[in-house]
Amino acid sequence: MLKLGLSLRVLVAVVCVLLLGPSNGPLWGQATQTIQGLVTDPSGAVIPGATVTMRNLGTGVAQVVHTNETGNYTFTLVLVGNYEVRCEAAGFKADLVPSVRVETGAQVRQNFIMQVGEVTETVEVSAAAVTLNTENAVVGGVIENKRIVELPLNGRNVVQLAVLVPGVQFGDRTGRGDGLGGFPIPGQGFSVSANGQRETHQVVSLDGVDAKDPRIHITNFVPSIEAIEEFKIQTNAYSAEIGFGGGAVTSITMKSGTNEIHGTLFEFLRNDKLDAENYFLNLGVTSEAARRPKDRLRRNQFGLVLSGPIIKNKTFWAFNWESRRERIETVQSATFPLDAFRQGDFSELMNGTVNPATGRLYRAPILIFDPYTGEPFANNVIPQARLHPGSLNVMNLYIPEADFRQTDPLDFTSNKGVLQPINPNTYFGRVDHYFSDADRVFGRIAVDRSSLTSNNINPNLPVTRDSKVMNLASQWVHTFNQSAINEFRFGFNISDHASRPIFAA
Q1: SS percent in the chain: helix, strand, coil, step 5
Q2: Cis upstream peptide for 383 (omega within 30°)
Q3: Average pLDDT, the chain
Q4: What is the pLDDT averaged over residues 405-424?
Q5: Which residue in 373, 372, 364 sits closest to 408, CA to CA?
Q6: Residue 43 gets which letter from DSSP?
Q7: Distance between CA 325 and CA 342 in Å, rounded?
Q8: Beta-carbon contacts of residue 32 (< 8 Å; ≥ 6 apart)
Q9: Picking from 69-73, 269-273, 441-445, which range would have the lowest pLDDT averaged per residue?
Q10: DSSP reduced 3-state for 499
Q11: What would the mean pLDDT of 307-315 be, rounded to a whole number?
């Protein structure tokens, strides 16, 4: 009975994997990398059985394959990084390419033309001509780590680098102009449109796992640029595994640890001390009145990134944390009622409004009518007895008094910078382990906890937004032989946010 129960549990688990695996969207949109090539002798004849060794320069992990009867070899599911590729065959000098870069979604072709000689001799290829990509017809571009880390980014959002790819521009929810928008937290979103396709048709994967909000198809958080290895955007002629949308397909690869310990502690600062004054801030303020100070801008982005080995050449870890504390004042205007209007006295509106510069009337007279009799109120004054106590209480509690008045009493009476506090926090952790040449696994988690307080020029109407995002990715690659390889990948993405008003009595 125990054996039967165990067998049933195993059977159920297998069935669940088979049923749930294909429905897990990230598995279809992942970017896979390969290194492949042809080994020949100087006459062009193929060399079967040649030994090709690929070694990751960062982790030191090596993998070996042999060329088949047609002289071809392939390394599949290669991690993004820099590699040394070596080819050896009996009767030929060893051939070494010391640095081969494998980018996100790349099918790298590295051919070898072996020279006759002893195996103990090595021919090193220090540079190779840039060749045309003949492995696929994908249209797009890769934003490599050098540009991610070294190019200045206002707000440190990699979406600003995405528009460097031809045909790609910011999506609506990240701001068509500068990419500093985002929903629900400004500056924390990734959305692009490509070749006229809307952002709702984009596909975004993080280490092969879907990373977009399923409702609006934007990514509600952006990893720290220190934690991103590189990313690739495909805009057309997608390969067969791409699905879920006809717009831009973005594949983001996160960094993993290496044999060396690396660490960075950083802070980026922006404030208003060197900024110009907002043009509309003092618009309408008389020359006698004191000028309002510049809109406040305080942006602190700080964090750290650490990575290194747990067991050299076998187990590696990486961790990244980044926070942003942003305090921005945006100019808002409102028409709060003048003191006389708050008491029901609208007599000033009976004669219209005269432009003092021309002496002409630029607002026609306005009469206040009694809704019960249809007749105008005497002198445009609503009797105190007709003012409802409940309405007066609401107005006195929630409608601020006017800060100033203009020539036109119905023009705006308040104009000020309103603070909008933004507090994003992003965490990323990853562990890679190599059991052997045939088995490797990794697990990665990304967590975002961010908040925004949307203040109003009316201090009684703030709204807070909380964003909670979690993205998990894991992979187990098992190589049975040169012709059979299995990849098991599991991941999920949770994107949750809530908005709530805060009423101040």
Answers
A1: 15, 40, 45
A2: no
A3: 84
A4: 89
A5: 364
A6: T
A7: 39
A8: 76, 77, 105, 241
A9: 269-273
A10: strand
A11: 94
- The H-assigned helical ranges of 331-439 are 339-342, 389-398
**Could you give the CA distance from residue 133 to residue 434 in angstroms, rounded to a whole number?**
31
| Burial environment of residue 487 by CB neighbours within 10 A (0 to 12, 13 to 18, 19 or more) | middle
- Cα atoms in the Cβ-side hemisphere of radius 13 Å centred on 331: 13
Instruction: State yes or no: pLDDT of 442 exceeds 70.
Output: yes
Residues 6+ apart with CB under 8 A from 316: 59, 256, 257, 258, 259, 307, 308, 309, 310, 431, 432, 433
Distance CA 368, CA 347 (A): 9
How far is 358 from 344, CA to CA, in rounded Å? Answer: 30
Residue 205 · residue 252 · CB < 8 Å:
yes
Rounded Cα distance, 169 and 177, in Å: 9
Please state, in angstroms and rounded to a whole number, the distance separating the CA atoms of residues 297 and 274.
Answer: 10
How many whole angstroms separate alpha carbon 427 and alpha carbon 425?
A: 7
pLDDT of residue 138: 65
Do 468 and 185 form a contact (C-beta atoms < 8 A)? no
Residues 369, 378 contacting (CB under 8 angstroms): no
Tokens of 355: 């432009």
Question: How far apart (Å, rounded) are the C-alpha atoms in residues 138 and 133?
Answer: 9
Highest mean pLDDT among 142-146, 194-198, 223-227, 323-327: 323-327
Between these two residues, 19 and 308, which has the higher pLDDT value? 308
Strands 297-311, 361-363: pairing kind: unpaired
Q: At residue 164, what is the residue type?
A: L
Q: State residue 272 phi and psi, 5-degree precision.
A: -90, 0
Token readout for 460 is 């009684």
Distances (CA, A) of 420 to 292, 325, 463: 18, 11, 10
Mean pLDDT of 125-138: 59
Residue 256 confidence (pLDDT) above 80: yes
Is residue 340 classed as helix, strand or coil in its secondary structure?
helix
- Rounded Cα distance between 131 and 86, Å, is 20
User: Sign of torsion, CA 167 172 176 180?
Assistant: negative
Reference 125, options 153, 145, 101, 99; nearest CA is 99
Evaluate the CA torsion angle 251, 252, 255, 256 in order and state its sign. Answer: negative
Phi, psi of 491 (to 5 degrees): -165, 165
| Mean pLDDT of the region 408-428 | 91
- Count of residues for the chain? 505
Helix (H, G, I), strand (E, B) or coil at 172: helix
Whether pLDDT at 11 is above 90? no
